[in-house]
Amino acid sequence: MIEAVHLSKAYGRGVYALRDFTLTINKGDFMFLTGPSGAGKSTLLRLLLREEQPTEGHLRVLGRNLREMTAPQVQAYRRTLGFVFQDFRLISRFTVFQNVAFVMRVLGVEPAEQQRKTFQMLKWVGLQHRMNAFPEELSGGEQQRVAIARALINEPQSVLADEPTGNLDPDLAQEVMALFRDANARGTTVLIATHDRDMIKRVGRRSVTLEHGRVVEVV
After folding, report:
1. 104-115: buried (b, 16+ CB within 10 Å) or exposed (e) per residue?
2. pLDDT (tens digit, 9 = 90+) per residue, 156-199?
3. Please, what is the end-to-end C-alpha distance for the chain in angstroms?
4. H runs (alpha helix) in the chain
């Protein structure tokens, strides 16, 4: 599914966010990226989202080299991904329902199908009763569940999440991780960047530890 080969990303002269990073993630995997702040976790996610380009090495998804994609190909590729940002990035002027339906609206999905799938997704994350609320009226945990619903509404092949439980208490973090486990059980490949090693142990999935942009452990 995802193959990084001797991947490096440098900012400025000799300052590496990733250095000689090699990793394979198979279709249907659930994997954590962990390590201290500045280890390179978020950089790898940005490279996978094609927001940035590697300085050296290759990054392939389903056999396609991301570096070689044209702009239209990048847009098509991003439609196969779901992304959950650390700061949620919900649209403040949109209701919960509108935030989740937004992706389908952009893709030109028929309004009736938008309605059906959005309500179904909100019911899955337990927020159908909040669908007319605005983001500022939600708790942090509720906002995170809206962000996850939005990331998964288009049934992506992969979902990438950057510290999705970083601002949540342990109980809410467990609820959020249960949503990712359910998505993975449906066949979605899941890659989560987190510094929470206790949570990784509780979930019990594969993890890759980074330090100073290098892989130091894979378990």
Report:
1. beeeebeeeebe
2. 999 999 988 877 788 888 888 998 999 999 999 999 999 888 88
3. 19
4. 41-48, 71-78, 96-106, 111-124, 140-152, 170-185, 197-203
Contacts of 157 (CB under 8 A, 6+ apart): 1, 27, 62, 80, 81, 188, 189
Q: Tokens 């080969």 correspond to what residue?
A: 5
Contacts 24+ apart (CB under 8 A), 119-122: 121/149, 121/152, 121/153, 122/96, 122/97, 122/149
Q: Is 102 left (phi over 0), alpha (psi -120 to 50) or beta?
A: alpha
Report how far residue 57's alpha carbon sits from residue 133's, in angstroms, rounded to the nearest whole number: 45
Measured at the CA of 150, the angle between CA 171 and CA 79, to 5 degrees, comes to 135
**In this predicted model, what pLDDT tens digit does every residue of 21-36 receive, in sequence order?**
999 999 999 999 999 8
Please state, in angstroms and rounded to a whole number, the distance separating the CA atoms of residues 99 and 101: 6
Domain 27-53+66-206 is found in CATH 3.50.30.20: no
